[in-house]
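Q: Here's a chain of 116 amino acids. Please give me its 3D structure as tokens.
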Amino acid sequence: EVQLVESGGGLVQPGGSLRLSCAASGFTFGSYDMYWVRQPPGKGTEWVSTIKSGGGSTSYADSVKGRFTISRDIAKNTLYLQMNSLKPEDTAVYYCRVTVGRTLWGGQGTQVTVSS
């Protein structure tokens, strides 16, 4: 069974950095596109970033472009999101996701709070 476990969230001051991790199991990690999404308090889920399988091309929401970097370590079956220059509006629960077959899988999320 597919499992995704996010970690690395916390409280950080504006301008600070965090690195989120997503430990994956139950599928061939390097063969699937992986995503980060987030849900700000009181709002819907929004897409943050994608890393494609194969060549590993990446894409980002305009709101995080230039500040966030998605990457993966296939040997460790782990997806990362390096977040720099954090802003209060980045406050959200962050989730990693993958579609395997016809099922969208996600973890329990990790809370990121940006506040002084």
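Q: Can you summarize the key feature?
A: The chain is about 0% helix and 55% strand.
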